[in-house]
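User: Structure tokens for this complex, please. No commentary.
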Amino acid sequence: MWHPLSVGEDEDKKAAALARVRKFVQTYVTKGKYGLYPEDSVVENVVQGLAENLVAHGRMYCPCADVEDSKTKGSAMVCPCTPHHEDIARQGYCDCALFASRDFVSEERLRTKK
Amino acid sequence: MELALNPHGQRTSVRTMALELLAPCPPFDLPGTDDRNHTLADVKGKLFVLLVSCNHCPYVIAYEPRMVALANEYGARGVDFMAVNANDATRYPDDGLQPMKARARERGFPFPYVRDDSQALVRTLGARFTPEAYVFDEGRKLRYHGRIDDNHRDPARVTSHDLKNALDALLEGKDPPVLETTAFGCSIKWK
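Assistant:
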């Protein structure tokens, strides 16, 4: 069961988790082959979800999957999750819409400029 | 929808073009958890709220009580609601019609919960996430598209009730204060 932080509760923990998630995400896209999903508000929502899960469950479980189910799968559903390569190959972005292929990012930027 | 191909002819992305404001609601004829098919012609309400939803997404699960509450509140004011699940049930068996029936029963959905197995409806809508809301007026033209509100985690911390605001405005004969927002949630599981 997912337990959101209440107001004023463990704000330091949340801030530290957010910093850790942001650092991980930045490093992953800087050093890896994927970019960020090309919509800042969508990315930020996923980042917040990862940070919430990190605080509540100790690991960056995908916020788009059931955490209790994810816990039964070892590290498979900890970001970057095992299926994200396959998801990106199939549809251009991972199921949480955090990481995307460079091609998808370029296409979306072109499309939104039009 | 548009499929992009890389120089090797491989599909590199799945993109959906959002239905434009004032565009007509796409027709549909889809099986529901109530063992009957639902069509656009069945919709009689002053407004029609179409919620792109699913079974397994934690965002949807967080929003379901709000979806039910909205449908109960606005159903009494002549607004029809329907939820549609188009996720690939092969990869996500929890999103098949039988688990949908169980979900509708458990949650007491007061609206039809239909299965778009071909994904044709949600592709035409240009939906990307679950949950994602579409509000059509009496002429079944799109008047609001986007999120339900701005905080899926905690209803008590919502600061912008976007869907509710749109419904209130439209019921008063006004334009929604915000016409489009970015929906948050899980991506639709395309086939």
